[in-house]
Amino acid sequence: MLQLHFGATTAPTILFLGAHCDDIEIGCGGTVMQLARRYPKARFVWVTLSSDPERAAETRAAAERLLQDARERDIRVEEFPGSYFPARFSDLKDYFEGLKALKPDLVFTHLRQDLHQDHRVTNELTWNAFRDHLVLEYEIPKFDGDLGVPNVFVPLTRAELQRKCEIVTDCFPSQAKRAWFTRDTFEAIARLRGIECNAPEGFAEAFYGRKLRINLFDHGAPTQ
After folding, report:
1. Whether the predicted model's global pTM rises above the 0.85 cut
2. Structural domains of the chain, ranges and CATH numbers in brackets
3. How far is 174 from 114, CA to CA, in rounded Å?
4. Is the N or C terminus of the chain more exposed, i.e. has fewer CB atoms within 10 Å?
5. Which one, of 192, 172, 195, lies nearest residue 182 by Cα?
6. Confidence band for 9, pLDDT divided at 50, 70 and 90
């Protein structure tokens, strides 16, 4: 499999987009930790679009723990009303226009085929705002059963998976009543994705890379 990495001396900007508190954590928490550890000089921008005061505090705590190795982290928790994103499309569009100034090198967002309306709107606005960027779409397990066939994988160690599960379950007591919000759920999907990419320790997070541009040679460099 091909490997993606930034140059050792670069300081990329990495943008994480989530419709609700806990979306980024569940969808790519392990990848967040790996990127923060691998690129401590990078600028990490974390945007959660919908929250209330209780859940805002939960996601800020989780984000701080997942990004603890990052030197520059910008955590934004907004208050767009959850479950009403289609009705607030114009306001959200204006917000995403403001995010363009970040000029991110890598963007994480929701899956296009996600059956939750807020997730789909977030994806649509991501692609509308970031047309010349590397965008990876993450998945959220839930009742709707909309998991697909991913084509990008980030292997996790057993310790990284355990750390992710610990942070998610510790930081979101408000979600403990949900039947699916369990450590078993997060471990199960990581194990499945680990099988699909032959991960060294058997666990992975999975993403959907819809458009990748590969420059096989430096522009202007002669080819042989």
Report:
1. yes
2. 13-208 (3.40.50.10320)
3. 23
4. C
5. 172
6. low
